[in-house]
Amino acid sequence: MFTRRRVLVAVGLAVPPALVLSASAWYREKHRPSLPAHTLGDLTGKVVVATGGSSGIGKASVQKLRDLGATVINGSRKDGSLDLADLNSVKEFTSKIVEGGRCDLVLACAAEIYTDQSQLSVQGHDATFATNHLGLQALLSGLTDELKPKRIVIVGSKLARQGLIDPPLIRSSNGKALNSRPPPFSPVKHYADTKLCNHLLSRSLSLRSPSSKVLTVSPGMVDTDLWRNFSSLYQLVTFPIRYVALRTPEDASLGVVYALAAEEIEDVPSGSFMVDGKVEEWTEKEKDEEIGEQLYGVCKEIINDAKNK
């Protein structure tokens, strides 16, 4: 009886995790990327400026672009060439690219989730906002003004649909607060806020820079080191589900490279939102041109303030 009871307890403990992992495996199979038939162009002689190309989706995408013949200039905090959270670093990196005189394609892949709401950038802006959006706008506006790249791909997220932003508050707080969401602080919701900023930036750039095709790509749910700032316990507990259920960076890079290099993209309008090679509709908040212009103007002012200090 004792042995049988122990067996029943063991089975009882094992069944829930087994069900979760089975459901996770089913989810992953159901959400594997399936792109339309396409032809990737020869990128020999093309210069790609990338951010976040040292890990995760960016690293996998950069390798594919190099395989297509591209010369990739990777801006990364990891190798010391670019820290998007530091506007001085962004200015220096952008100046070097402009001095080189060539930028055909841009891949904006760098992202961060800080779990500490008080974490600030070098210039005193919210660290997640500075890394994911403010530095990105400074970089892209500099490149589009000077070099007019043919395609710009911003890696976004469907989480942006949960985002909230208040441009006047962003201005009055000097980039320390993005909205008036009540506590408790949620790092994931805050990340969603910055992704909404990215999506609005994509729309604004498509109008401001008609010579560049600007696209936003959702790579799906991906297991990357984006979670590295979460507690060790959180990472340990979620690891089995993330490993089994979520896409790999290599899977996620397929849609990113499609947007950058597929010949079929010629027919896709600038300012589009793409998922696995297909255009999806923006939500009302993502395509709000008035808010997008307010956000662009506010961020431009904050960037200029930092330059003048």
Q: Which helices and strands appear, and what pairs or packs with what?
A:
Layout: H1 2-30, E1 47-51, H2 56-67, E2 71-75, H3 87-100, E3 105-108, H4 127-146, E4 151-155, H5 167-172, H6 187-208, E5 213-218, H7 232-245, H8 249-261, E6 272-275, E7 278-280, H9 289-308
Parallel strand pairs: 1-2, 1-3, 3-4, 4-5, 5-6
Antiparallel strand pairs: 6-7
Helix pairs in contact: 1-7, 2-8, 3-4, 4-6, 4-9, 6-9
Task: Give a concise summary.
The protein is of the alpha/beta class and 309 residues long. The chain has helices at 2-30, 56-67, 87-100, 127-146, 167-172, 187-208, 232-245, 249-261, 289-308; strands at 47-51, 71-75, 105-108, 151-155, 213-218, 272-275, 278-280. It is built from nine helices and seven strands.
Task: Please characterize this protein's 3D structure.
With 309 residues, this protein is of the alpha/beta class. The protein has 9 helices and 7 strands, in the order αβαβαβαβααβααββα. It has helices spanning 2-30, 56-67, 87-100, 127-146, 167-172, 187-208, 232-245, 249-261, 289-308; strands at 47-51, 71-75, 105-108, 151-155, 213-218, 272-275, 278-280. The chain has a 7-stranded mixed sheet with strand order 2-1-3-4-5-6-7, with helices on both faces. α4 (127-146) links the parallel β3 (105-108) and β4 (151-155). α1 (2-30) crosses α7 (232-245). The protein is globular, with a radius of gyration of 21 Å. The chain starts with a helix and ends with a helix. Residues 4-15 have low confidence and may be disordered. This is NAD-dependent epimerase/dehydratase domain-containing protein. Keywords: Oxidoreductase. One of its GO terms (molecular function) is oxidoreductase activity. Residues 50-204 form the NAD-dependent epimerase/dehydratase domain. Pfam families: Epimerase.
